[in-house]
Each structure stands twice: as C-alpha cells, then as structure tokens.
Design brief:
- With about 200 residues, the chain is of the alpha+beta class.
- It contains 4 helices and 13 strands.
- The protein has one domain: M1 Pyruvate Kinase, Domain 3 (Beta Barrel).
Length: about 200
C-alpha cells in the first residue's frame, strides 16, 4: 500500500446545474497534486480548504483518501457520459490522498493508517453531493459512486506530522465492528428506498 499523491485545493466557485437551475456554489473539490513534504495538522493538510464545514472537514473528516484503482472506472464512465475522452488528473475526485492498495473493501471504521510519522483513523465513507456531479461533468456521477461503492474514506488525524508522495501505508486494525462496505450498502439501500417511496 502506498501514498501516490497528496492533493490540496482552495475554495473557489463551481457552476452547477441542479434541476435546470444553473448557479455558482463555493467548493474546495478541485484538488491538485503538490510535491515535497506537506504538513498535516489536526484539521487536515496545510493549504487545503473546504467550503461547507457542515459536511466536509472538521476533526472527523479532516482528510479524504481515494484509491487510484477507481480512476479507470471514472475515466470510462466520463467518456461514456460526455462522449469524449477527457483527462482525469490525480485529485480530480476531490481527494487529499490518492492511494494504491487501500480499497474500501479492506477498511473498517476505527482502522488506523500509518503513513510515515502521521497516524490517521478511518471514520466513514464519503457521501457524495451534487457538487461531485458538476465536478465530473455529468448528472449521474453521484448515483454511480453510491451504486459502485467506490466512495473513498474520510480520516481523522490522530498523530500530526508531515507526508510526501511515495510513502508506504500500513493498516493497523481497529475494533472491526462496522465496515466501510456495510455503511456504503446501507446508504445505497436507503437511497433506493427514497427513490421508490
């Protein structure tokens, strides 16, 4: 398991079209890779910003990690939806950490990730919002993330320090009572009930 990229972004406007109503919303979803050592504090990665702290950021969602393995899925789905091949650079899903070998199916709430001198704890999977549709460029990206369970995970910072791309990631098992897959399954079933009620 390895840290492939560290990505940060500033809050900026994003144009969204919800139910035929075009508007600009502020978001920190646009992340770009950074090089060298990056400081990790209790509230996340230095230089990174979140616009809506009611759903992003804070102590329990300080950092968002996403598997590089899912990028092939998104490249294919975007090409199908948009009828053209567009690049999807690391950080495009809105993640702070792009990883390899660290899939949702292997993670549980409370598991800890040791990356260099930084210790992080898995808190929950991402629940995507309408801004993800706008970022990906088509209207059903949120639905696809929920259906596929390729959510990535939010992380709490247990031990601050510095990170750099290329570091190994070790998983330290937590209590293993609730898995990320279980939460994703519950959310998917709940969403389906909402659609048909």
């Amino acid at each position: 398991m390895r840290l492939e990229s560290i990505n940060i972004g500033r809050v900026a406007p994003l144009f969204v079209n919800e139910s035929g109503n075009a508007q600009s919303v502020m978001t920190g979803i646009r992340k770009e890779p950074v090089s060298g050592n990056v400081i990790v504090n209790r509230l996340g990665i230095a230089g990174d910003e979140q616009a809506d702290l009611s759903v992003h950021g804070g102590l329990d969602k300080a950092i968002y990690a996403y598997p590089l393995e899912h990028y092939a899925f998104w490249i294919q789905e975007r090409e199908r939806a948009l009828k053209k091949n567009l690049p999807l650079p690391l950080g495009a899903i809105g993640e702070n950490l792009t990883t390899t070998g660290l899939l949702e199916s292997a993670l549980w709430v409370g598991d800890r990730l040791q990356i260099g001198d930084v210790l992080l704890e898995v808190t929950e999977p991402r629940a995507p919002c309408f801004k993800f549709n706008a970022r990906m460029g088509y209207a059903h990206a949120v639905k696809q993330m929920l259906q596929a369970g390729c959510s990535g995970v939010y992380l709490k910072v247990i031990q601050t320090g510095s990170l750099q791309a290329g570091l190994a990631i070790s998983v330290l098992a937590g209590p293993r009572e609730v898995s990320i897959v279980q939460i994703n399954d519950q959310r998917r079933r709940g969403r389906q009930r909402d659609l048909f009620s």
